[in-house]
Each structure stands twice: as C-alpha cells, then as structure tokens.
Amino acid sequence: MVRRTLAAVDVKESSVAWFRRRREPAARGGRPADKAALEHLAEFVRSRRGVEAYIEPRTTVTETTILLIAHDGEWTRRRIDSPEGARRFAHQLAMPIYDIRLMGYPQRMRDYNARQKLRPTDGDTRDRAQPADEG
Fold first, then answer.
1. Average pLDDT in the 53-59 region?
2. Order of strands across the sheet with 75-79?
3. What per-residue confidence (pLDDT) applies to 34?
C-alpha cells in the first residue's frame, strides 16, 4: 500500500476554475489620499500640541486610515493610501506613529469623546431628561 501526503503529490491544476480566487496579486495600497485630506492632517498637527499618529488597518468597509490625536484627546481621521504612506507622513512632520492594533485607542481620546457627549449642542440648553409639556 502506497501512502501519499499532500506534500508529496504534484497536483496539476485544470483549466476549469470557476470558484477559485484569481491568482493576480491584489493591489497593495488603496485609493491614494487626496491633497485636501493631507493638508487637513498637516494643519491639525500644526495647530495642536502633543499630536500622535495611529495607523488604522484596512477593513472590508474602510481603507487604511491615519488617526491623529492631540494631547487633550481631540482627534481627526482621514484615509491614507497605505501604512507606509502614513509612516512617511508622520516622519515628515516629526511625529510619533503607532499601530492601533498593537496599542489600542488612547484613554485621552475616549475621555475627549465622553466630554463631547456631555456638552450641550449649539443653542440647545434645555434638559433632555425632562419630558416636553404636552398640550
């Protein structure tokens, strides 16, 4: 009895491949970041102190993004062409850059978001917990 393992068998692929994925390499980067987005990010860095950059990986829904977080937790996010492009951008502006998958979102960003939720909206000073008068 001859025993064959997958490593020992040379399998020839047939020309019928209806359900196989394409063999073409996928594009490495997503859409290129537009000039307005890069200018917005650069202005955010220039106008705030203690800004750090975080790379958010590409998902099925979004392209690769760069997240900038200031010292007080204020943040902005824009699409960028690739993680390498995000690193180049951060190094050009002498800013530290981290991978969000390794570091997680900073607590100061969560605190900033919580403060923004507590802040009343423009012109709306009434207490939202009180039911409106019916009548």
1. 96
2. 75-79, 65-69, 52-56, 97-99
3. 87
Does the CA dihedral 72-78-79-84 come out positive or negative? negative
**How many C-beta atoms surround the C-beta of residue 56 within 10 A?**
20
Q: How many CB atoms lie within 10 A of CB 119?
A: 7
Q: Is the pLDDT of residue 8 over 70?
A: no
- Residue of 28, 100, 34 lying closest to 66 (CA atoms): 100
Structural Rg of the chain based on CA atoms: 24
Give the residue among 107, 16, 35 at the shortest CA–CA distance from 78: 35
2 pLDDT band, cuts 50/70/90, is: low
Q: Tokens standing for 5? A: 């393992």
Q: For residue 115, which phi and psi values (nearest 5 degrees)?
A: -65, -40
